[in-house]
Amino acid sequence: MPNIKPNYFQRRSKPQGPKANERIKALDVQVIGSDGGNLGVMQLNRAIQLARDESLDLIEISPNANPPVCKIMDMGKYKYDLQKKANQAKKKQKIVSLKEIKLRPGTEIHDYNFKIKNAKKFITKGDKVKFTVKFKGREMQHVELGKKLMNRIIEDTKDIGKVETQPKFEGRQMIMIIQPN
């Protein structure tokens, strides 16, 4: 007989979802009937037999309770309901993204108006906008131009957004974040 070694690199898939029927490890369980009524604490074998009599499954609802709470119901329906709840929660969550707009201290008025128009569009859509004013070379000696520009941005967007992060220096750039009201 050949010596067969197990493949140590083989993936072992964990069973997904809640424990059901024979996968439940507890000896005694609190059982809830298929109609929602409490059937009390009983041995696992008896609970599984009750579920089989109704041609349903015994599903572990609350494994951390003492004794664990199990419910008699259809496993497919239970998984479907869990998936439905997860989808509802996913629909309700709002993902806020951060858009960045880069400027220079000497940005001309037309370019500035164009960038502010885009920023207002982002803010009304519900996104945060990060304004970055980059300084190069001798522009670092005129930091007040960047501060004036940031104050102007605050004035132009104050009706639809508020400043989340005040203008501050990080290296050779000034950064500010505006969020929707």
What does it look like?
- The strands form 2 sheets. Strands 2-1-4-3 form a 4-stranded mixed β-sheet. Strands 5-6-8-7 form a 4-stranded mixed β-sheet, covered by helices on one side.
- The protein has helices at 44-53, 75-92, 109-125, 143-157; strands at 28-32, 38-43, 57-62, 69-73, 98-103, 128-134, 161-170, 173-180.
- It is built from 4 helices and 8 strands, in the order E-E-H-E-E-H-E-H-E-H-E-E.
- It is of the alpha/beta class.
CATH architecture of the largest domain: 2-Layer Sandwich
- Secondary structure tally, helices: 4
Categorize the overall geometry. elongated
Largest sheet: 4 strands, mixed
Helix content: 25-40%
CATH class categorisation of the largest domain: Alpha Beta
SSE pattern: EEHEEHEHEHEE
Strand order of the largest sheet: 2-1-4-3
What structural category do the secondary elements indicate? Answer: alpha/beta
What is the first-to-last residue Cα distance? 75 Å
How many individual β-strands? Answer: 8
> What number of domains?
2
Mean pLDDT: 89
Radius of gyration: 31 Å
Uncertain parts: none
The CATH superfamily of the largest domain is Translation initiation factor 3 (IF-3), C-terminal domain
